[in-house]
Amino acid sequence: MKITIGIVEDHSEFRQSLVFLISSFTDYQVLWAMGSAEEALDNQEPADIILLDINLPELSGVEAIPFFKEKFPAQKIIMLTIQDDEESILSAIKAGADGYILKKTSPQKILEAIHQVYEGGAALTPMVAKQVLAMFQPQKAIVAPPTNLTPREKEILNLITQGMTNVAIAETLLIRQKTVRNHVKNIYEKLQVHSKAHAVAKALKEKIV
Fold this sequence. Notes:
This protein has helices at about 10-25, 35-40, 60-70, 85-95, 105-120, 125-135, 150-160, 165-175, 175-190, 195-205; strands at about 5-10, 30-35, 50, 75-80, 100, 125. The chain is α/β, with parallel strands linked by helices. Helix 3 (about 60-70) runs parallel beside helix 4, helix 7 (about 150-160) packs across helix 9 and helix 8 (about 165-175) crosses helix 9 (about 175-190). It is globular, with a radius of gyration of 17 Å. The model is unreliable at about 135-145 (pLDDT under 50).
């Protein structure tokens, strides 16, 4: 079964290059490619993964995330942008982005990020992950606030921060995937987050794991 992709990118040449890249692999299918968030939101065909730029005309990529999530909750969103500043990264993750990769990322790594998020992981390129860690370095001496996560939930959160998918977590802990999904849902509620990327960022910031 092919992974279906939607692309929101206002630069036509880069948009077409993404379409060409993704379409050249049999495991992926581009359902649509739009130049603005408004166009994409008007589109009625849900995709498994949306590659979303931040700098868009009118509605920005970060502003559009909640609208995409509301319209088709099952869609996963990967930010694909040149923005590597702290504010952009955290704003996107807090808004519900499932991954954050830079446009200068190699084509192979972009495809790997798509597959990783599709399988339930959180895709952060090494540079972005390093940036996220750097944001929280000054808080090293701060005592972590208490959480009401159970030991099992902390164990699963730790595996999530290592980039593991629900399938891999289930295999590692010898439990069912449904059980992992239930634990992940509880983790989201307790941490007040909406994606694995946000959970990873919060776990690092508050030193939960």
